[in-house]
Amino acid sequence: MRILITGGAGFIGSNLAARGIRLGSEVTVLDNLSRPGSSWNLEWIRSLGSFDFVRADIRDFSALLSLFRSKQFDVVFHEAAQVAVTTSVQDPRTDFEVNALGTLNFLEAIRLTGQNPVFIYASTNKVYGPLSSLTVTEQNGRYAFQALSRGVPETHPLDFHSPYGCSTGAADQYVLDYRRIYGLKTIIFRQSCIYGPRQMGVEDQGWVAWFAICSVLGRPITIYGDGKQVRDVLYIDDLVDLYFRGVTVEPHLRSAVFNVGSGLEQAVSLLEVIHLLEQELGHPIEVRYSDWRPGDQRVYVSDIRAVCDAFQWAPKILPRQGISALLLWIRRHQDIFHNLNSER
Description:
Elements lengths: L1 E5 L4 H12 L3 E6 L6 H9 L5 E4 L5 H10 L4 E4 L6 H6 L1 H22 L4 E7 L11 E4 L2 E4 L16 H21 L2 E7 L2 E2 L11 H11 L3 E4 L5 E2 L2 E2 H14 L7 E4 L7 E2 H12 L5 E4 L8 E2 L4 H7 L7 H14 L1 H10 L1
Parallel strand pairs: 1-2, 1-4, 2-3, 4-5, 5-8, 8-13, 9-12, 10-15, 11-16
Antiparallel strand pairs: 6-7, 11-14
C-alpha cells in the first residue's frame, strides 16, 4: 500500500507513519518541519525503517501537483494543519492559507492528476462551535449535556467560531463536496481530544499532553475556567487503528463524515485528568486558574455510534492506561521537553 502522510512529522502523522512502516507499506512523509519537535519525530521515524521524505509546504500548490504527477498513492492521510485557536486569532490569514487553501490544494492536485486515493481528513469537533444551543448541567463535579445522552452526533448543526473553526470547517466541507461532485474517496474524521506519545503539547493545543509535560517537569498548570469542562479523550493508538480501518472500509461507506472520540464512557473533566496525573506521579500538582477562554465548550463528547458501526471499531485504551503510557514516554525524554520549552 502506497501511503502519503501530510504533516507526517507531527504527532498524529508520525504515529501513522510508524504504523505504515511496521505494516510494510510504502510510506511518504510530507512536512515543512515548522513545528517544534517535528525534526525529532522525523528522526524517530527514520529509526523504524525506510520511507520517502518530502519537505514541502501545503500552501505550495505547484509542489503538491509535482508530487502527484511523479508518484502514485493508494492512501492520503491529511494531518498537516494550523491547529491552535489562539494562533488563528492572532494570524487569521496564515491559518486560512494552511487549513483551507492547503486542503483545497491537495484535493485539486488529486483531481487534476486523475488519481483517486482514499483521502482521510483530520477535521475537528470545533466545527460545531461553542454548542450554545445545548443546555449544560453540572453533575458530580463535572459538566454534562442535559439532552444529548450519547454526545454530539454528526447531524448537529455546524457553527464555525474563531478563524480556526472557519478555516477547518471550510476544509471539512470542501473534502465532503469533492466526494459528492468529483467522486473522490474522501472521509472526514471530526476528531475530539487526541493524546499520546510524540505529542508536543502546548498550552493552547494538545492539553492532555501539556498537562502531563508540566506535571513531569514540575511546572504549574493553568486552567482557564473552573476545570469541570469535559472532553472525550482518545488515545493515539486507537485513532491510528481507525485510520487504517478506513482504507479498507471506504468502498462500503454510506456516509463520509464521522465524529471521532472515545465517547461518553471514557469522557473526563480537566480536573479528573489532573487527579489521574497526581495518582500516577505520586505527588500533588500546582494548579492555577484564569478566566474562561472565549467560545470554550463546557462539555464536548462525541456520539461515536456511527463511526463504531461503519468501521467495526471501538476505543480500547482507557484514560488511566493512556495517561500512564504518555507519562512514561515524557519521563524518558525530559531533556527534549526542557529544550522545546526554552525555545518557545
